[in-house]
Amino acid sequence: MLLVCDIGNSRIKIGFFKNNKISGIKIFYNIEALIKYISNKKIDKAAVSSVVPGKLKYFIKLFNSNFKYRPAIINKNSKFNLKIEYETPNTLGIDRICSAEGAFYLYKIKNDPVNYNKNIFIVSIDFGTATTINIIKYDRIFTGGLIAPGIGMMFKSLKNNTAQLPEVKLLNYKKLIGNSTKSSIASGVINSTLGMIYQTTDHLRQKNNKSKIIIYITGGNAKNLFPYFNFNYIFEEGLVLYGIKAVYENAMKQK
């Protein structure tokens, strides 16, 4: 059984793979609790990725102290299934790559590869600490995307960096035009996030009026936004985990 681990800024997500199926997705907020949990599991290989170097280093230290084998580290030097066409690849977050890899992996196993063509854009959106949009164009090209503060970060920023604005939550959202300060802030945060998505998909359609846009969504804040989406999407809680698995398997093939 393969353990896959995604160590993020705010939380740690894990899942277990047998063949192509994921199970046992869990969230942890500290590495000690994670190591204790997996120490009783029958795992014989592991792959881990992280955007937080200090946490990754600590995870490897504890993992190596508790297990007889070493985890595979998925990082910017890994062999990807996607072709990375990014002006500054050294600054490209591994979480964004794995999100895109996961989207492409799921598209590939659920669709006839013969039908994959230049009119298809595969988009992954991760609603985490930051909201990231990642775009894959034909043929398997990671072409870039967008990065913005996550909805939680936007709410906190307005509260912490202004003298009089109140603390706001998603439930304060009533309609597009807010008629109170709280509902106005909630609308601004939600609709700025939605607007970024709509602007991106409109741009892709303008580039190719025959384009088909397939959107995969993940992240801790995703479910909070479901009521406000007016586009088709596929939600996958373990999207980044699928991406880590895809990169891990590609690396194993090339050994």
Structural features, described:
The chain has 255 residues and is α/β, with parallel strands linked by helices. Helix content is 37%, strand content 25%. It has helices spanning 31-38, 53-66, 94-110, 151-160, 181-207, 222-225, 239-253, and strands at residues 2-7, 12-18, 21-28, 45-50, 72-73, 83-84, 120-127, 130-137, 141-149, 212-218, 234-235. It has a 6-stranded mixed β-sheet with strand order 6-9-8-7-10-11, with helices on both faces. The chain has a 5-stranded mixed β-sheet with strand order 3-2-1-4-5, with helices on both faces. It is globular and about 60 Å long. The mean pLDDT is 93.
The CATH architecture of the largest domain comes to 2-Layer Sandwich
The level-1 CATH class of the largest domain: Alpha Beta
The mean pLDDT is: 93
CATH superfamily of the largest domain: ATPase, nucleotide binding domain
| Main beta sheet strand tally, sense and closure | 6 strands, mixed
| Share of helix, binned | 25-40%
Number of strands: 11
Q: From the 3D structure, determine the CATH topology of the largest domain.
A: Nucleotidyltransferase, domain 5
Strand order of the largest sheet: 6-9-8-7-10-11
The number of distinct helices, counting runs of at least 4 residues, comes to: 7
Shape: globular
Low-confidence stretches: none
- State the secondary-structure class: alpha/beta
Q: What is the CA-CA span between the terminal residues?
A: 20 Å
